[in-house]
Amino acid sequence: AAASTFHDEVGEYDSGTGVLFILEADNTLWLVDTARATGKRTALWTVEFIGPNGPVNNGGPGAVMLHFAPDATGRRVPSRVGDVVLTRRSVGPQAGSNQLRVTPVRSIEDVRREALAASPPAEPPAAHNPDLVELTSLDPTITLEIRYATTNNFLGTRFYDEARAFMQRSAAEAVVRANQRLRQLGYGLLIHDAYRPWYVTKMFWDATPLDKRWLVANPAQGSKHNRGAAVDLTLFDLATGQPVEMPSTYDESTGRAFADYPGGTSLQRWHRALLRNAMVAEGFL
């Protein structure tokens, strides 16, 4: 998958009658009229955008003109498609950040104190003796970036004392197999979180606004993280050591976080599919 020419143009735009999505596929800009209408793409045509090799022309039958204008920073961004005025929506983290924050609805310290004093839901007897193993003890090439051991997470609070990742042995071994498979393709796994104590799940729930609770698990049921059977992860490029680009960032409370989000660039969606396929092949859903 090649890097896209149109990295700055893709995004979500208010059009006055609804949200339009400008995405890149096959090195062409496309217009999508709804977040899920991936089958209703309309080619965009522009001669106003100057790319690395000169004017870019994506014209064709039924194509429409995409116009550009400088934004507040002087960058040329889409401003009109045909006769429809576009206003770029602000989604995801601010420039220079890789984490979108959520403002807690309550004091984190109050939430922490209550969560530590609360009791988790009852678990079946088979879950009382978990065989948790550390991922890096099974495969030292797995890289950790445990966000909850830092303040670089969606609530801006440090939850863990150490940056370590544990999982049930069978799940951990599946992650190792996925990592080995991906390394043959030039990528490695970057782990953001694995086993998560129940009290942290309760903290997430109690501190997150109602409209964003889809992002976190209900502590009344617990989560696969609490059982060591889930992992939050992404890919990094073995050649550069840098995380790859995905359609969304970690723990992002926007539509970009859904697996079927159609926006972004071909390369971002290709990375997402590569990771997803590798994990599904090892039994993760």
What does it look like?
This protein has 285 residues and is α+β, with helices and mostly antiparallel strands. The strands form four sheets. Strands 9-8-7-4-3-2-1-10 form an eight-stranded mixed sheet, with no helix packed on it. A three-stranded mixed sheet has the order 12-14-15.
Task: Describe this protein with a few key phrases.
5 helices; 22% strand; 19% helix; 285 residues; three-stranded mixed sheet
Order of helices and strands: EEEEEEEEEEHEHEEHEHEH
- Proportion of residues in β-strands: 15-25%
Number of strands: 15
Q: Report the sheet with the most strands, covering strand number, pairing sense and barrel closure.
A: 8 strands, mixed
Structural class: alpha+beta
**Average pLDDT, to the nearest integer?**
89
Number of helices: 5
Specify Rg, calculated over alpha carbons: 21 Å
Q: Strands of the largest sheet, in order across it?
A: 9-8-7-4-3-2-1-10
- Sum up the overall morphology in one term: globular
What is the distance, rounded to the nearest whole angstrom, between the alpha carbons of the first and last residues? 24 Å
Binned, the helix content reads: 10-25%
List low-pLDDT spans.
none
Oligomerization state: single chain
